[in-house]
Amino acid sequence: MRPVRLLAIAPRPFEDELLSCWHWRVASHYSSSPRQVENWISGSSRVSTPHLFNHDIPTDQSATRLWALACRLRQGDLERLSLRATGRSRASFVSDPGHRGVCPACLDEDAQEGRDHYCRRSWARVEAVVCPQHKTGLEINCGGCFRTGLFQFRSTPAGVVRLFCRECDAVVSARRFQRRNQTDLLQVASLVGEAISKGGSGFERIEVASRFLWSPRPEGMPYIAAQGFPLPHGQRPPVTASTPPLASLPPAWRAVTITAIADLLFQETAKKALLSSSVREAFRQFERGSAPDYHPVPLPTRATSVLNLRAETEYRQLARGIVESEGWKSVLSKTGRARNRAIGKLMLRALNDG
Question: DSSP secondary-structure letter at 100?
């Protein structure tokens, strides 16, 4: 039997850490990836790239055993980091790690305590859209360059691991600007999270409600986009029938969906109903499986216009100019739609060359 290869540097896992996060923290000390480190430990050169979700719900116990031996840990210490150890179903977690948000304020506290940045297991839950400790939304956007889904663990010269933006190389931090308090959203998300944790028919209804909200209305637009909710900026994400919406959406869109689900299923907890009676009736039909088959009339064809896009570096310069402008200071004091309108005006002004 070949002797087990030991890793010289192997940080200890935190109590509430996500398994894939620990893998990346270990690998970052070697400027490598978890797959490359695992191949070195096992002495093989496999090139298979399983879905990233499988790293947090591993089915190969031998791989977990190898990691534990190489890092001088007990196998059980790693198995408890798996999402499988939570007792919740696979569908109750966000499948794409790029759509799981992080709390920059929590990461700042990690740095203040002198420990590595790390991702909490609770951030992988579908209802995790707000940090319960800091009452601010979880984020997937860099606060410096505004790019999405490009965070990466790296070891610093000081020997600690930090989460960086791959695009602008900035450390993820909450110090760039003040976040809005999201206590109301946290209460709604906690209500939905409790029902999900209980499982059974309650979780099934939440899944059905999420599918209904992302199903098309007669004119083709999903219900979630036509109910007057303040929607996130950018293109509406695609939702397929094979994946539950809550498990595949980024945090901002999950927050809107969770708010609508709470109003649809737990209306008694809301001060004012947000969804109309016609939408509630449509949902009841959807639950019974008797929703009518719509055949929307195709929209008239329009003449296509040429979209002249600018260079990516120019857009980045415009974004930095907006953040450094005097107008940005007034935006920070606004909330909700007023803030969105103010940002839109600054963007329009910048795109029109001031």
Answer: S
Note the helical H segments in 266-335: 277-288, 312-323, 326-331
Q: Are residues 151 and 45 in the same domain?
A: yes
| Helix (H/G/I), strand (E/B), else coil: 95 | coil
For 257-315, how does the pLDDT look when each residue is reduced to its tens digit (9 = 90+)?
999 999 999 875 456 677 888 889 999 999 888 554 444 434 445 555 556 777 888 88
Burial of residue 147, with CB atoms counted within 10 A of its CB: 0-12 exposed, 13-18 middle, 19 or more buried: middle
Bridge partner residues of 209 (DSSP): none
Q: Which of 175, 169, 282, 179 is nearest to 224 (CA)?
A: 282
Query: How much is the CA Rg of the chain, to the nearest whole Å?
Result: 23
Q: Report the amino acid identity of residue 185.
A: L
Q: What six digits make up the tokens of 250? A: 């980024």
Tens digit of pLDDT for each residue in 108-144? 999 999 999 999 999 999 999 999 999 999 999 988 8
User: What's the burial of 342, exposed, middle or buried (CB within 10 Å: 0-12/13-18/19+)?
Assistant: middle
Region for residue 329 given its phi and psi (left: phi exceeds 0; alpha: psi -120 to 50; beta: otherwise): alpha
State the amino acid at position 343 in one-letter form.
Answer: I
Would 9 be classed as within a structural domain?
no
Does one domain contain both 247 and 318?
Answer: no
Same domain for 274 and 194: yes
Q: Give the Cα separation of 80 and 85 in Å (integer).
A: 5
Number of H helices, E strands in the chain: 13, 2
Residues 39 and 67 in one domain: yes
- Nearest one of 255, 99, 110 to 174, comparing CA atoms: 110
- Domain with 247, as residue range(s), is 183-288
Distance of CA 238 to the CA centre of its chain: 15
Q: Are residues 320 and 205 in the same domain?
A: no
159 falls within a domain: yes
The neighbouring-strand residues paired with 125 are: 93
Under 8 Å between Cβ of 158 and 32: no
